[in-house]
Design goal:
- The complex is a heterodimer of chains A (about 170) and B (about 160).
- Chain A is α+β, with helices and mostly antiparallel strands and about 170 residues long.
- Chain A has three helices and seven strands, in the order H-E-E-E-E-E-H-E-E-H.
- Chain A has a single domain, classed as Yope Regulator, Chain: A.
- In chain A, strand 2 and strand 3 form a beta hairpin.
- The longest helix of chain A has 25 residues.
- Chain A is globular.
- The termini of chain A are far apart.
- Chain B has one domain: Yope Regulator, Chain: A (2-Layer Sandwich), CATH 3.30.1460.
- Chain B is about 40% helix and about 25% strand.
- Chain B has three helices and six strands; from the N terminus they run αββββαββα.
- The N and C termini of chain B lie far apart (about 75 Å).
- The chains are: A alpha+beta (about 170), B alpha+beta (about 160).
- At the A-B interface, helix 2, strand 6, strand 7 and helix 3 of A face helix 2, strand 5, strand 6 and helix 3 of B.
- Chain B: This is YbjN domain-containing protein.
- Chain B: InterPro entries: Put_sensory_transdc_reg_YbjN.
- Chain B: It holds the Pfam family YbjN.
Chain lengths: ~170, ~160
């Protein structure tokens, strides 16, 4: 009997590409043991409601949403920045964006308190042709890792704004 | 030969093949996984770097870091907040400030031909649109500043 040679296979068998849904994102987060919740996002009257998959960490609120042909990973850092810090924050986001591929760091006026700024990290992937399970996995996991790296870096520049205690702090 | 539904590793040659489908011929720099083309008068770079690939366009400005003018930085942040689909940043390590717009995409799990084409089309459009976005935002910010300065001058002289 001749020996059967198998082509090298990926450790996790992939699925064919298929449309991306909030449920597929939730499945992935579930499999990774991450907490999440599905939430209907408010939309103008007459438009189909969209579902946002929310997850997060002690220092970050993270949302995955589908917008046309793109899957968006958006996030907000927990630190409360005042407008007086704007020049410093502009320097921080500019430095990150010119030296790191992703995510994009940005800041804008906070919707909660006047005179406050929100620092946000953002990333996206084209979903026009659908994604396989491993592709969703690669995007979600590398985005979460990137968001945490970005905020870790922000926290090193603005340590006085870290007012929470990380229960997982190994130091 | 892969069919449109096979998920295969992304190489710079596949990127060049996909772009030729849009009648854009890339100049492939053999050996370093980089290719380039001139699009809309801008140098556009395509690169394959391990788990990500990227498309970027650069505009060299007349400004230098020594000008200490935050306009381009503010304009880039403004554009990143509305998202034209690519990231704007100001490269200030060299002599002149460079407005860079860039879109990266994950290739860790491979892409089909159809995915690669759709992603590249989206990325190139976004990278070029974001260059225009930064330009417009910077002009608006400069006008705003000029108007405020004029007002302050008039106030001081009255």
């Amino acid at each position: 009997m001749g020996q059967v040679t198998n082509p090298p296979s990926s450790p996790i068998p992939d699925t064919p590409v298929a449309p991306v849904t909030p449920e597929r994102l939730a499945e992935l987060l579930e499999a990774e043991g991450l907490q999440y919740r599905l939430e209907s996002a408010p939309v103008p009257d007459g438009e189909a409601s969209t579902v946002v998959v929310r997850t997060g960490f002690i220092n970050a609120a993270i949302a995955f949403s589908l917008d046309g042909d793109r899957l968006i990973c958006d996030s907000m850092w927990r630190g409360e920045v005042t407008k007086a810090d704007a020049p410093k924050v502009l320097g921080i986001v500019s430095e990150w964006n010119q030296s790191q591929y992703m995510p994009t760091l940005r800041f804008f006026e906070s919707s909660v308190g006047e005179g406050h700024l929100t620092i946000s990290a953002h990333r996206q992937v084209n979903t026009a042709e659908g994604l396989s399970r491993n592709q969703i996995g690669a995007f979600v996991m590398s985005s979460l890792d990137g968001v945490l790296r970005a905020y870790d870096w922000v926290e090193k520049q603005l340590p006085e704004l870290v007012t929470w205690e990380d229960p997982h702090n190994e130091q | 030969m892969s069919s449109n539904t096979d998920i295969t590793p992304v190489t710079i040659q596949r990127v060049a093949d996909a772009m030729s489908g849009f009648d854009v011929q890339l100049d492939v720099h053999e050996g370093n996984d980089v290719a380039s083309a001139n699009l809309n008068g801008l140098p556009v770079t395509f690169a394959v770097l391990g788990s990500v690939a990227l498309v970027r366009a650069d505009t060299v400005t007349e400004q230098t870091l020594a000008d200490a003018d935050p306009t381009l930085y503010l304009a880039s942040n403004q554009v990143n907040c509305v998202s034209f689909g690519a990231r704007a940043s100001v490269m200030d390590r060299g002599e002149n400030l460079i407005v860079r717009t860039e879109r990266e995409f994950s290739i860790a799990a491979g892409l089909t031909d159809a995915q690669l084409s759709a992603t590249l089309r989206d990325a190139v459009d976004a990278v070029l649109a974001t260059q225009d976005g930064v330009k417009v935002a910077a002009e608006e910010l400069a006008e705003l500043r000029a108007a405020v300065e004029k007002q302050l001058d008039e106030h001081q002289n009255s």
